[in-house]
Amino acid sequence: MKDRVGRNDSCPCGSGKKYKRCCLGATARERPLTSRHEPSRAEVDGDGLTLLVETAQGTMVRSIPGASPLRADARQGYAAEEATHNAAALWGMPDFTFRPKTTSVGSGRRELGDGVIVVGDLAVVVQVKSRGVLTSDPDKERRWLDKKATEGLRQANGTVRRLCVRPERLTNVRETTLEIDGNSRRWLSVVVLDHPQPPEGFTPALTVAKHPAVVVLRRDWEFLFDQLKSTYAVVQYFERVAGEELALGHEPVRYYDLARADAATSPSEFPRDLLGPGVLTSAPLLPMAPAGSDDLRAHKVVRAMFEDIAVTRLTTSSEEDRLRILAELDRLPVAQRVAIGRFMLEAMGKVSQHRGPGVVWQMRSARGEDGRTHLGFGACSHPYNENIKARFTLWTQLRHHDVASVTGDTDRLTTVAVLMTPRGDGRRPWASVSAVSGDLSFTESDLAELRKLWPTPATA
Question: How confident is residue 239, by pLDDT bands cut at 50, 70 and 90?
Fold first, then answer.
């Protein structure tokens, strides 16, 4: 995928026009063209990148813009850190992105990374290095990039070491402070190099890293978050590619190589007992098109539910519980979010039409083949009260028991469910959450009563 199309070359789509007059100006959305079975290509355009990716439907053009502009009223290094945090908070959840903290180390003071991302049991130390004055000497630029990549990886080593020796209280972009214990996470190191035009072929060495590591341009950091729109999905991607050295600036190329491989891979066999009476769906782990681009409204519904949970005032749970719940929800595969959003829109529409006595429920559970991902989504026609809360909690517990009885993995399984209910003030429905983990120890009589209240559905 590293062959380039020149601006004045004939466009690969076969139109007969020059590339700059045809597909070079394509938007960030995919654009299928007539396939000529040529290898996919990449062209650097300023500090941006244009990719031509061969798919089964033809050639897809993906235009990746340069990194977002930095604040002019702040020191460049700080502005680059802030822009890196903002990208993760905008397209991912701000609750997972923690700002740097200065802590005492011996007789001095050290900063704990330029940022830390924590989502479930995965965590990333982020180091950001920004090039101030660009020179015309490629060798000098390579030396700067090599020095800063190595420096960032060593700093990340130190941050993980300190968080494993002593937990620290860090503050996330949502302005919530939580204690982060380094021993309870799998750690990755990501160095973000803010450089507009790295020399062609420069490949950062990862040998000094003591944890799985990736070095990317800030442009490509923003591309990944924009493409996946999920902190968990981006961190999972970093874990997938960590340790594999790659020419700087080619992260989008690697992404689409993997996305094409995912699309060509046959679905693995889903455990039938875990599926139950449900419907099996399968999609590539990495989407070719930006997440949500096929139905932005449905995708926004899912994000709105997550936001409601993130800002709701807590009564019985802790902020640590909230972060864990959000992490479980963010495990919802990006390829499934539009489908869940459409279901929620349809469910809210149905329950809102109910005018008679009683309560109407529309519920669905989503289960992953890993036996750990178990999420519930639904809508109810009655405003939230203690009775609705009790019934919703019992639904969550029963579905949790059903999965745990198949997998036998009660230690790792956490079930999280979201319920949308109408509000008396006429504003949009409000999201409530129920979560349960561990062995519930239901008796046979307990289960019999629960199944009267919540019969096994035709589709789970």
Answer: very high
Q: Which two tokens stand for residue 424?
A: 């008396």
Round to whole Å and give the CA distance between 41 and 37. 12
How many CA within 13 A on the CB side of residue 445? 0
Distance of CA 113 to the CA centre of its chain: 21
**β-pairing, 373-380 with 361-367?**
antiparallel
- Give the mean pLDDT of the chain: 86
Percent of the chain with pLDDT over 70: 87
For 412-429, b/e burial (b = at least 16 CB within 10 A) is: ebbbbbbbbbbeeeeeeb
CA distance 19 to 9: 6
CB count in 10 Å sphere of residue 171? 13
d(CA 211, CA 198): 25
Q: How far is CA 249 from CA 87, 153, 154, 202, in A?
A: 18, 18, 21, 9
Coil vs helix vs strand at 393: helix
Helix (H, G, I), strand (E, B) or coil at 399: helix
What three-state secondary structure class fits 38?
A: coil
Listing DSSP states for 236-272 in one string gives HHHHHHTT----TT-HHHHHHHHHHHHHHSPPPPPPH
For the cut 70, the answer to whether the pLDDT of residue 236 exceeds it is: yes
Phi-psi domain of 255 (left: phi exceeds 0; alpha: psi -120 through 50; beta: other):
alpha
Q: CA 175 to CA 152: how far, in whole Å?
A: 25
- Report the greatest alpha carbon distance in the chain: 77
What does the alpha-carbon distance between residue 53 and residue 407 come to, in Å, rounded to a whole number? 39
Which of the two residues, 44 and 170, has the higher pLDDT score? 170
Q: Burial of 338 by CB count in 10 Å (0-12 exposed, 13-18 middle, 19+ buried)? A: buried
Under 8 Å CB-to-CB from 18, ≥6 apart: which residues? 7, 8, 9, 10, 11
**DSSP label at residue 336:** G
* Per-residue pLDDT, 228: 97
Q: Residue 20 in 3-state DSSP?
A: helix
Torsion of CA 233, 237, 242, 244, to 10 degrees: -170
Tens digit of each residue's pLDDT (9 = 90 or more) over 364-374: 999 887 777 89
Distance (Å, whole) CA 415 – CA 411:
12
User: The dihedral of CA 237, 241, 245, 249: what is its sign?
Assistant: negative
Q: Between 415 and 36, name the one with better pLDDT.
A: 415
Angle formed by the axes of helices 386-407 and 444-453, nearest 10°: 120
